[in-house]
Design brief:
The protein is mostly helical. The chain has one domain. It has eight helices and no strands. Helix 1 packs antiparallel against helix 2, helix 3 crosses helix 4 and helix 7 packs antiparallel against helix 8. It is flat, with a radius of gyration of 30 Å.
Length: 249
């Protein structure tokens, strides 16, 4: 609000300066023969002229400041939403292809918020599910781990992650310092890399339905599918850390 007020003041100042110049142009013409009174007006004229020169720079600086803060907040909101989905992706992949244990639950628990909006098919919030599972014994977690392993033919149907706001505002990144740009672009690159790996996992999953391949090749494809998903989880974890670093700055 204060910045909008400042912008309004500067705009009004510009209008006042133009009026001052218009009214005092005659004193500028008679400057060599000016009286003391005229000299004062000429001085005011030159002060106004200087203000007229620098006012557009001030207005531009204020506008950039407002736009930069607005964009930074919007980027943070978009990345926070992506971060939430990535934590869920890690949980889904590791619980199905990796080791469903307390280490996984501890990582997830430390990276979710009370406002986490993702729900399971029963309507239970993901954060509540993790809290409930964290109270189970190690043996109970082992039993769940045994039941969570991949059933052949069933995939995770992972969705690609997009950054529509960031992608549409790439030409505005010059408003920010180089470190800000580097971190944001690094996150974007890693997300694109993860999306490529998701596409690769989909490819392997489709191959598992090919009846024309040998049993040996089928097992290799299943292993490639598993490895690809675990790689996705590692990338997702890395992106979560990068987003945390970006938002905290």
């Amino acid at each position: 609000m204060a910045c909008y007020f400042a912008l309004n003041v500067v705009s009004n100042l510009t209008s006042w300066i133009m009026i001052l110049i218009h009214k005092n142009i005659e004193y500028l013409i008679t400057f060599p023969f000016a009286s003391e009174k005229s000299m004062s007006k000429i001085l005011y004229f030159f002060l106004g002229l200087l203000s007229a020169i620098f006012t557009p720079l001030i207005v531009d600086t204020v506008k950039k400041y407002l736009n930069r803060n607005k964009l930074k907040k919007s980027f943070g909101i978009e990345l926070d939403d992506v971060r939430e989905r990535l934590v869920f992706v890690v949980f889904k992949i590791v619980s199905k292809f990796g080791k469903y244990d307390r280490e996984l639950l501890t990582w997830v628990s430390s990276n979710i918020k009370d406002s986490f909006e993702i729900h399971n098919i029963s309507g239970e919030k993901f954060s509540e599910v993790i809290e409930r599972l964290s109270k189970l014994s190690d043996q109970d977690l082992k039993n769940i781990d045994a039941n969570q392993k991949t059933v052949e033919g069933r995939g995770l149907s992972l969705k690609k992650i997009n950054l529509p706001l960031v992608d549409s505002k790439l030409d505005s990144l010059s408003l920010f310092d180089l470190e800000f740009q580097r971190k944001l672009l690094d996150i974007r690159i890693q997300i694109n890399f993860m999306n490529e790996e998701i596409e690769q996992a989909r490819f392997y999953h489709r191959l598992t339905f090919d009846s024309g391949i040998s049993n040996e090749n089928h097992q290799l494809i299943v292993q490639n599918y598993t490895d690809s998903n675990l790689h996705i989880s590692q990338i997702a974890k890395s992106i979560v850390q990068k987003i945390d670093s970006f938002i905290q700055d």
